[in-house]
Design goal:
323 residues; 2 domains; four-stranded antiparallel sheet; globular
């Protein structure tokens, strides 16, 4: 019988791994996606054990979410940090646990709760949490552009791990001190998405295919629409984009698309044929170094009979100059 939990661990263990400090790998961590966290000392059938799967809801916020977990010392912005703090407190100072639950993010909560807290103690605890996550955790990432897809795959993966009933923590795992029974029971730093439907075999095969090596070539957008062009390992060109969502959802529904092309030249021809002379009006966001000369030539040869496009050409040239 197929063991998808074991295959999940193998798949994620084979991916590029990041650990703190990861600022130097900024360009290699996508703006959108899900993250899969591993913890030192935790194993599953010989593989580094998955201890948390997470994502973000806002667009282009993956790096920001990772910083909230690894860098920013504020448990009210990271439930992951809050759960780790609960473990340290339950282990060493359980009397402070009720106060750790208090939030001072909003003005109302701050006025109500701040005088109850030992802020100096919490500052030291936040430092302890930071030292722990920076020293013991690593992660891989799966690029996923849309919020709906990120939440779908996050739920599927978490539920697959939880429903298997075979994930076991080591005796020394910090999560064993959690005040949350779900964390101790499932050996995951999660309390949500545990009881949903897990991955079917076809879904797992699709997940594997999403890890095909791909290179980001080009990203562009306009008001209410954006797209990214990738090259896969077999040189196939993929365009993934979305539009809508600015107006009322019924009037301006969000639409996502994915198209494939044989080569970059075929994609570019389709791009310029579809948009005619208006392609220059798109806002260029990213251009891969290997395409600088190609796109620079296209911009240089653009017909300037329309004087209104001068500012758009300048925008393309500014980005090309940065690469």
């Amino acid at each position: 019988m197929r063991n998808i939990v074991l295959e999940l661990h193998q798949l994620f263990n084979e991916q590029r791994r990041f650990s703190f400090p990861f600022k130097e790998f900024k360009k290699e961590i996508p703006k959108n996606g899900i993250y899969i966290i591993f913890e030192n000392g935790e194993k599953h059938n010989g593989f580094d054990r998955i201890v948390r799967v997470g994502t973000h809801t806002g667009n282009n916020q993956l790096r920001s979410r990772l910083n909230q977990h690894f860098v920013k010392e504020n448990k009210n912005r990271s439930i992951f940090r809050k759960n780790i703090g609960r473990c340290f407190l339950n282990k060493e100072k359980p009397s402070y646990l009720p106060l750790w639950e208090l939030d001072i993010t909003s003005r109302v909560d701050k006025e109500k709760n701040i005088n109850l807290l030992d802020l100096a103690f919490e500052k030291e605890l936040e430092k302890t949490i930071t030292e722990y996550v920076q020293s013991n955790l690593s992660f891989c990432v799966l690029p996923i552009d849309t919020k709906e897809e990120r939440l779908f795959w996050e739920s599927k993966i978490v539920s697959t791990l939880a429903n298997a009933g075979e994930i076991k923590a080591s005796d020394n795992w910090l999560g064993n001190y959690s005040t949350k029974e779900k964390i101790k029971k499932y050996s995951l730093w999660q309390v949500n998405q545990l009881y949903n439907e897990g991955l079917a075999e076809l879904e797992f095969e699709k997940l594997k295919s999403m890890f095909l090596e791909k290179t980001k070539l080009f990203e562009f957008g306009t008001e209410g629409s954006s797209a990214t062009v990738f090259k896969l390992a077999d040189n196939t060109i993929i365009e993934k984009g979305s539009s809508g969502g600015i107006l009322d959802e019924d009037e301006d529904p969000i639409q996502n698309w994915e198209k494939s092309f044989d080569t970059w030249e075929v994609w570019w021809q389709n791009f310029t044929d579809t948009n005619k002379e208006f392609w220059i009006r798109y806002h260029p966001i990213f251009i891969h170094d290997s395409l600088r000369a190609f796109i620079k030539s296209a911009v240089h040869n653009y017909n300037l009979s329309d004087s209104n496009v001068r500012r758009h050409i300048n925008e393309w040239n500014r980005l090309l100059a940065k690469n």
